[in-house]
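pinging the channel bc i need a second pair of eyes. not urgent but kinda urgent?? the chain im working w is below, pasted from the shared doc
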Amino acid sequence: MSQSIESHLNEKRVFKPTKQFSKAARIQSLEQYRQMWEESIKRPDKFWGREAAELQWQKKWTKVLDWKEPYAQWFVGGQINVSENCLDRHLNTVRQNKAAIIWEGEPGEKRVLTYQQLFREVCRFANVLKRNKVKKGDRVLIYMPMIPEAAVAMLACARIGATHSVVFGGFSSDSIRDRIADCKAKLVITTDGGYRRGSIVPLKKNVDDALREGAHGVQKVIVYRRAGNEVHIEEGRDVWWHREMDYVDGHCPAEALDSEHPLFILYTSGSTGKPKGILHTTGGYLMQAYATSKYVFDLRDEDVYWCTADIGWVTGHSYVVYGPLACGATSLMYEGAPNWPENDRFWRIIEEYSVSVFYTAPTAIRAFIRWGDQWVKKHDLSSLRLLGSVGEPINPEAWMWYHQVIGGGRCPIVDTWWQTETGAIMITSLPGAVPTKPGSATLPFFGVDPAIVDEKGQEVGPNVGGKLVIRKPWPSMLRSIYGDKARYKKTYWSEVKGCYFAGDGARRDKDGYFWIVGRIDDVLNVAGHRLGTSEVESALVSHPAVAEAAVVGRPDELKGQGVVAFVVLKSGMIVEPHLREELRQHVGQVIGPIAKPDDVRFADALPKTRSGKIMRRLLKEIASGKAVTGDTTTLEDLSIIAQLTANND
């Protein structure tokens, strides 16, 4: 039986950086990138020491890295404060009165916070936390919509050395309760509600339900008035944000924190059903969030940078708040859905604020394709100079649409691979230096040493699929699973000796470019052939009628697993009787007969969370004919489940 993931897609299109972009970029050539990468791997102390010197340290480190597998300490002995690096160090520069955060609410309100104003708000709220008896080392849970106060809360925690744990505003009260119990949070910060597709999401009620259901240990709940909906205020426990701010001043020195002081705990789904509390610390995390923001997005003082991720995900941590603000950039935040009130909300925002760097997810890009080009053409997107992709592999055809329709054929695309656990971008192109191939994350970032290995841990040759591993420690790596070191070692360091195992399958082509083919858990074993789901999906999306596809396996007595494809057609396309077989044959031509779907089901949309992640667990249950079970509270549209389970004949 074949043990490698078979890779058949062969992308021949290559896009070189334009001379104009390269000339102004921080990294201007492939040769310069390779020299810097070699140094970062062979002499990490020198490389990261030089990069870290750009940050503001209250006490310099004595050693760049102390590595005792699987535990790393970066910038040992150094003292630093993330909030100080994101705010204070810009105040005596021309950035003092520059926009730090530009915000738009879903109903249409607009706010701008300069670096000076954001600094003052953070200092005042840090004093509110102190007033409510939060101290260095305490855990604070943040459950808020995409409003500037969410960033203020994070930066205020970082300022006084409290460890924050942000919970995505689409999660249920059960999720809040479980996270409070695991991290033993002392205080919760929330809002009365938030806006989503014109409705108010009752965030405070969800917190109340979580606390009533047994989330013990929480002493205070701070409530920001956002939506004006009626909420219950528990006397002695709940306090209003605005009233607390009246009691404090704007003077709060940044705490000198050890480089390894816990900055945040962010929970990600675990295979056991119990969420994993991914622990990130201060100095190393900030270093790589800063360096990747600077080099990958090639950030300039004049840029308006927009990462569309929610603050509840690691992308929101690293590339809405910490990375851009450490660089002194202007970070745009938008509260609501991309298609509210109409399908052009994102393009209207880009035009209105002259966004120059735009970072979003492939699931969003495929939704844009489905809605049609007419929504894009209504707006002037000429301010854009750089596009980014994050969250999952991007199909080559979606990459091409993004490049041509959104970027006007002139904007480089940085397709970034990384995870909650890695803290920051790991594999990516650099826009002025690295030629790109649609669908490939391209080359490793500085200090990152990835490899593709087989079942025995041996590195494989070009275009042979296998497990993606990282062979050396990197600054923003997770330090542990909170409260469970044994699980940390078993989950990430036991699969391949001496390596961090990412859980993803990938291949590396003859040019050394990395192609992520999906989670190893999602690899299909069809008659002894191991197929990456993302490659089958890419083959489907390359058909002119298809906007989006998700592929899962179902039990098959003969082949082991059958291939089931869920397909969303482009706007204006209808399901013709011959289309199922046409798509099956198309996949057979692109990949090979073994990859032909056994079943093709059509729907108006795929089941996604509010963050845009496809809920593959639900698709697997539907494909297998099982009842849909488990938590569906984060599902954007429950009606999709009924449509997918209905007879598609």
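so The chain has three domains: 5-81+265-516, 111-255, 523-645. and The chain has 20 helices and 34 strands. — does that match what u expected or am i reading it wrong
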